[in-house]
Design a protein that fits this description.
- The complex is a heterodimer.
- Chain A is built from five helices and five strands, in the order ββαβββαααα.
- Chain A is of the alpha+beta class.
- In chain A, helix 2 packs across helix 5.
- The longest helix of chain A has 22 residues.
- Chain A starts with a strand and ends with a helix.
- Chain B is an alpha+beta fold.
- Chain B has a domain of 100 residues: CO dehydrogenase flavoprotein, C-terminal domain (Enolase-like, domain 1, 2-Layer Sandwich), CATH 3.30.390.50.
- In chain B, 28% of the residues lie in helices and 19% in strands.
- Chain B has twelve helices and eleven strands.
- In chain B, the strands form three sheets. Chain B has a five-stranded antiparallel sheet with strand order 4-5-8-6-7. A three-stranded parallel sheet of chain B has the order 1-3-2, with no helix packed on it. Chain B has a three-stranded antiparallel sheet with strand order 9-10-11, with helices on both faces.
- In chain B, helix 2 links the parallel strand 2 and strand 3.
- In chain B, helix 5 packs antiparallel against helix 8, helix 10 packs antiparallel against helix 11 and helix 11 packs antiparallel against helix 12.
- Chain B is globular, with a radius of gyration of 19 Å.
- The termini of chain B are far apart.
- Classes of the chains: A alpha+beta, B alpha+beta.
- Chains A and B meet through strand 4, helix 3 and helix 4 of A and strand 1, helix 2, helix 3, helix 4 and helix 5 of B.
């Protein structure tokens, strides 16, 4: 099937077997190998990408179903000399060891910040109806919201600390701007 | 994955027309069916993409309830302020399930129709009556920690995996279904799922081509709504046991209560006799113990899941205590 995949702002015309997952299309057809194939069953989060700004598992998505959607992969988050705030914070806090899960962690955390900003609640949020943006974001909140991303090196303390730093900083920036 | 013909449906009529035979399957979020197709547990010859059907809205109904389109994502339901304020049980159940990524992709309709995570169902080398009628049930003798204790049969002990559906059961939701001929009907949660009996491959009341188009919530009737789930790890795991409760107290007595249970049965479990036993009574430890005993009277364990018989009674007592405080 012919379709257009819009990835990191660029349109790519591809011709794919309908069975091709979005993950395989990104890696094999578009040569964007930053997105990793871990379990290929939606359990590890290594394949996390953004579709229209929301994080999903690319291994549980058929490419043909995302014709025309805006897709963002880890390659679209920052550049080597222009890291995204999360990428810098992962370096500062040693948020990885082998690095295989890191692209998924970064993309997932990027969307998680948007979800926090939009006031989405989580399983550990005490009050469902309070404006969450006004509440401090605990490490428990970050861990719960990142539970779809596994790290076999167990770098969770560094990952959570990195995300926490960006949450605190972006909140301070927002308050300063207001 | 086996080859299939892919079609994207532009409207509901196109969808039901394209899916009107046994070799076709709908795909919406795809988080379950794509996995099952990779495992070759599910081998549809035609996949009908319904993800772009105009069923993405949550709207108020005339009687003060909510209509949730079948294509609304699980995340969007849990984030909706009307749901959070008036049906916190539903938001809580959804947030207790899966991961942020899965909830963004999974739809309300798909969540209802997801398949069991019974390990034997998902392993095509194992005997499974649900996957292959007449093949037998490997779960009865094999590891069966995740399997069901209520509503099971000698042919199948698979548990329904949904958290959301348990909340919908306790909230007395109705499912709106459109048939291939365009006729629309409302199905109560009670009537939506079948018990396995001697035909565990038949899981719902849906006929070929039937499409779930909406979930309709009646106006909430209980002030206290609780969802509690016990699982093997703190997040991103299916329920061993869960309890949904919607309860109203009046003059120190339980005036109304709806209960539903997850992880213990082939469908969101409910027992009207247990509810009747509680109504009109002042809350007490003895009452809650009595309710739990009544709930599990028909329970059957298969070794690995025996612990659920005790666990569900304790969880019910804890939830009732909290809800009636």
């Amino acid at each position: 099937m012919r379709l257009i995949l819009t990835v990191n702002g660029a349109d790519h015309a591809v011709d794919l077997d309908p069975r091709t997952t979005l993950l395989d299309a990104l890696r094999h057809d578009l040569d964007l190998t930053g997105t990793k194939k871990g379990c290929d069953h939606g359990q590890c989060g290594a394949c996390t990408v953004l579709v229209n700004g929301q994080r999903i598992n690319a291994c549980l998505a058929l490419a043909v179903m995302h014709d025309g959607d805006e897709i963002t992969t880890v390659e679209g988050l920052g550049e080597v000399d222009h890291l995204s705030p999360l990428q810098s914070a992962f370096l500062t806090h040693d948020g990885f060891q082998c690095g295989f899960c890191t692209p998924g962690q970064l993309v997932s955390a990027t969307a998680m910040l948007t979800e926090l900003h939009d006031g989405w609640a989580s399983h550990v949020t005490e009050n469902l109806t309070e404006t969450l943006t006004a509440q401090p974001t605990s490490r428990a909140e970050i861990a719960e919201r990142m539970s779809g991303n596994l790290c076999r090196c167990a770098c969770y303390p560094g990952i959570v600390a990195a995300i926490e730093e960006v949450v605190v900083r972006s909140r301070a920036d927002r308050e300063a701007a207001e | 994955m086996r080859p299939f013909d892919y079609r994207r449906a532009g409207d509901v009529a196109q969808a039901t027309a394209a899916a009107g035979d046994a070799t076709a399957a709908y795909i919406a979020g795809g988080t379950n069916i794509i996995d099952l197709m990779k495992l070759e547990v599910s081998t549809p010859a035609r996949l009908v993409d319904i993800s772009r059907l105009p069923l993405h809205r949550i709207t108020q109904t005339q009687d003060g309830g909510l209509r949730i389109g079948a294509m609304v994502s699980n995340s969007a339901v849990a984030a909706d302020m009307a749901v959070r304020q008036r049906y916190p049980l539903l938001a809580r159940a959804i947030l207790a399930g899966a991961s942020g990524q899965i909830r963004n992709k999974a739809t309300v309709g798909g969540n209802l129709l997801q398949r069991t995570r019974c390990a034997w169902f998902q392993d095509i080398s194992a005997a499974c009556n649900k996957r292959e009628p007449g093949a037998g049930c490997a779960a009865k003798d094999g590891p069966n920690r995740m399997n069901a204790i209520l509503g099971v049969s000698g042919h199948c002990i698979a548990a329904h995996p949904s958290d959301m559906a348990v909340a919908l059961r306790a909230l007395d939701a109705q499912i709106e279904v459109t048939a291939a001929d365009g006729a629309t009907r409302l199905v109560a949660m009670d009537d939506f799922y079948r018990l396995p009996g001697d035909a565990p491959h038949l899981e719902t009341c849906l006929a070929e081509g039937d499409l779930v188009t909406s979930v309709i919530l009646p106006p909430p009737t209980a002030e206290t709504q609780i969802y509690r789930k016990i699982r093997d790890r703190a997040s991103y795991a299916f329920a061993l046991v869960s309890v949904a409760a919607a309860l109203r107290m009046q003059d120190g007595r339980i005036a109304a209560v709806r209960l539903a249970f997850g992880g213990v049965a082939p469908r969101p479990w409910n027992d009207p006799a247990v509810e009747q036993l509680l109504i009109g009574q002042p809350p007490s430890k003895d009452l809650f113990v009595h309710a739990g005993e009544a709930l599990v009277a028909p329970a059957i364990g298969h070794g690995g899941n025996d612990f659920k018989i005790t666990m569900v009674q304790r969880l019910l007592a804890a939830v009732l205590r909290e809800a009636s405080e």
